[in-house]
Design a protein that fits this description.
- The protein is of the alpha+beta class and about 150 residues long.
- It is built from 4 helices and 8 strands; from the N terminus they run βααβββαββββα.
- It has one domain.
- Strands 1, 2, 3, 4, 5, 6, 7 and 8 form an 8-stranded antiparallel sheet that branches.
Amino acid sequence: MKVIKYDVKVKVETKDPKREFAKLHGLLIGRFTKDERKYKEQVNNILQGKAKSLEINGIKTSINENVLEVEGIKFRKLINVRKFIDETTKKYEMKCGQLNRSENLLTKQCEGENVKVYFEIKPERIKPIKKTAEEKKEESKETQQSKS
């Protein structure tokens, strides 16, 4: 059974990325964090101009001249990625193109009023960790002992 995780990268192009960050930070990042106090401090630093980027739980957010970039959002199922895209695009009432598939990258482009959002989804296969010969022997001994 192959297990796949989807790594999502979001680019928001706009004239005022800080304002868009203020609108979207809860949707893009906040839902993936557990330490709210630390998260709110870092968000306030970005909004006040003290910082240009933040990283929480492996999710990196950066603000450049007119681009807000969020990367490192991970999902286990493609349907969850689609729900995430739908929630994000509903916020702006955007029109989106189809999900384009290439060999190892899925992309989707959405356009709204004064905003363009690009989604890059990279499927990544998770390989199970192989056990060494010693671990297998120990497991077989434990199962034999538990049976007797």
